[in-house]
């Protein structure tokens, strides 16, 4: 009997293809082939933080540093399925962060689905913060961090799936024992840029999202199908902070948190609901909405006026949380 050849059953932005026989093929090219704007004012290099899983991060610093700078983590987006610290859209955004905050920027990679389903990416991100703790404690410390970074002024940020990671890190280290585990590193705040949360029940912005949106409902659901554990629904704790099996957030001692949303993003309602529910619990959370903006506007066009406004907001946030005592 003739057998049909394997065919594509899932595809993400032209760089990830899943075939009917479960084969996964990834393109070496980025999904966003934009030019890199490197004017030489920021230096960067790659550093391995997890040799077992062969994971690296990209470290950025302003070329001319006169005093210790805060550390600003940036976890990239991509629905837990695509994306990389090496993609030019990520690099352009990190150049601007390092130059304008200014800060030592750490942009880690993490294992991607469907080869490595959640919570793999969250576990890798925890490992990256613990790597920073070892750096601060003097274990084979990178000279850039040792000479130029202030380990007591750390802000953890991420966009889309990276914003979801920021939430899970806030929960993981939001206790006395969690903070002790990171000493002498001190996380002063978190920034969730259009966090990629999910849930079985649709929100209004999800249901009304147009098909031509940069992140539409079809792609949103595809990312969750590929990244969640097989058999899990969208209320899985990795996706829904308020799902039936998710840990309670009332006991978590959240550091100051900024949640950034775009008016035209299908994730807006879920992100605003997340922030409002945390505020009702007394957590130090604020929301900033960017009118007329879609998902990921700041990495799609990091040199736009809206991106400049976001950069000014991030700088104020980093300055404000950096002067607060622990």
UniProtKB/TrEMBL annotation:
Residues in Alpha/beta hydrolase fold-3 domain copies: 73-298
Chain coiled-coil ranges: none
GO molecular function: hydrolase activity
Active-site residues from the entry: 160
Cross-referenced Gene3D superfamilies: alpha/beta hydrolase (3.40.50.1820)
UniProt xrefs under SUPFAM superfamilies: alpha/beta-Hydrolases (SSF53474)
InterPro entries noted in UniProt: AB_hydrolase_3 (IPR013094), AB_hydrolase_fold (IPR029058), Carboxylest/Gibb_receptor (IPR050466), Lipase_GDXG_put_SER_AS (IPR033140)
Pfam families: Abhydrolase_3
PANTHER family: ARYLACETAMIDE DEACETYLASE (PTHR23024), OS07G0162900 PROTEIN (PTHR23024:SF535)
Name this protein carries in UniProt: Alpha/beta-Hydrolases superfamily protein
Organism expressing this protein natively: Rhynchospora pubera
């Amino acid at each position: 009997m003739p057998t049909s050849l394997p065919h594509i059953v899932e595809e993400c932005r032209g760089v990830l293809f899943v075939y009917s026989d479960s084969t996964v093929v990834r393109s070496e090219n980025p999904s966003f082939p934009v030019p890199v704007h490197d004017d030489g004012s920021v230096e960067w290099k790659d550093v391995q933080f997890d040799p077992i899983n062969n994971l690296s991060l990209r470290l950025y610093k302003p070329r001319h540093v006169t005093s210790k700078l805060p550390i600003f983590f940036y976890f990239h987006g991509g629905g837990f399925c695509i994306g990389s610290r090496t993609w030019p859209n990520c690099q352009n955004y990190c150049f601007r962060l390092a130059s304008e905050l200014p800060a030592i920027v750490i942009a880690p990679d993490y294992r991607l689905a469907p080869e490595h389903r959640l919570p793999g990416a969250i576990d890798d991100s925890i490992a990256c913060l613990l790597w920073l703790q070892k750096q601060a404690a003097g274990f084979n410390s990178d000279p850039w961090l040792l000479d130029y970074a202030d380990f007591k002024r750390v802000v953890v940020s991420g966009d889309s799936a990276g914003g979801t990671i920021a939430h899970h890190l806030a929960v993981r280290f939001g206790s006395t024992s969690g903070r002790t585990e990171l000493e002498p590193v001190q996380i002063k705040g978190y920034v969730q840029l259009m966090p990629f949360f999910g849930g079985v029940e649709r929100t209004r912005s999800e249901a009304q999202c147009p098909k031509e949106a940069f992140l539409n409902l079809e792609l949103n659901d595809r990312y969750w199908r590929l990244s969640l554990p097989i058999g899990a629904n969208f209320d899985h704790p990795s996706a829904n902070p308020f799902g039936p099996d998710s840990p309670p957030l009332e006991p978590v001692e959240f550091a100051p948190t900024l949640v950034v949303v775009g008016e035209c993003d299908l994730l807006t309602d879920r992100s605003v609901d997340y922030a409002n529910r945390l505020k009702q619990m007394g957590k130090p959370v604020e929301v900033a909405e960017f009118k007329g903006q879609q998902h990921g506007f700041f990495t799609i066009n990091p040199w736009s006026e809206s991106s400049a406004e976001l950069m000014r907001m991030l700088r104020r946030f980093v300055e404000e949380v950096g002067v607060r005592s622990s």
